[in-house]
Amino acid sequence: MSFTTDQTTPLRPNFAEFQVIVAEDEPMAAKLAQGALKLMGFRRIFHATDGLKALKLLKELDGDVQLIISDWNMPAINGLEFLKAVRKIFPKMRFVMLTGNANREFVMAARKYGVDAYIAKPFTPDQLKQKVEAIFRL
């Protein structure tokens, strides 16, 4: 049996092989994000309760992370500071920002530092799925 692929259709990435960091201090939001990622096929999901721990985790993983989901409001360093730090080291890292404050100033600040997607809380697993698929152009 032979298979052909349409050269114009990108192959779906194998999310099971990807490493993801979820930086979220709210337990329910963290569980929701992790559950949604698992439903999408991600298996290597790391959790940090603040931006500083997430940055440390990113360094421990030698930057071998394909996606970061981060809350905006966290202790130690917030999501925007975490995004800025990530962009200095890994300018192409895929980064989704979560926040309960979806006003224009927040969105513009996140865009200024290269956020790939922005999701207002509360969010649904389907909203996260849509944003992640858009980032990976599925």
What does this structure look like?
The chain has helices spanning 27-39, 51-60, 79-89, 104-112, 125-135; strands spanning 19-23, 44-48, 67-71, 95-99, 117-120. With 138 residues, the chain is α/β, with parallel strands linked by helices. The protein has a 5-stranded parallel sheet, with helices on both faces. α1 (27-39) packs across α5 (125-135) and α2 (51-60) packs parallel to α3 (79-89). The radius of gyration is 15 Å and the shape is globular. The relative contact order is 0.16.
- Helical content stands at 25-40%
User: What is the number of helices?
Assistant: 5
Kindly provide the radius of gyration, computed on alpha-carbon positions and rounded to a whole number of angstroms.
15 Å
Distance between the termini: 26 Å
Count of individual beta strands: 5
Global structural class: alpha/beta
Biggest pleated-sheet summary: 5 strands, parallel
Shape: globular
Q: Unreliable stretches, pLDDT < 50, 5 or more residues?
A: 1-6
- Strand percentage, roughly? 15-25%
- Mean pLDDT comes to 89
Strand order of the largest sheet: 2-1-3-4-5
Task: Give me the strand/helix succession.
Answer: EHEHEHEHEH
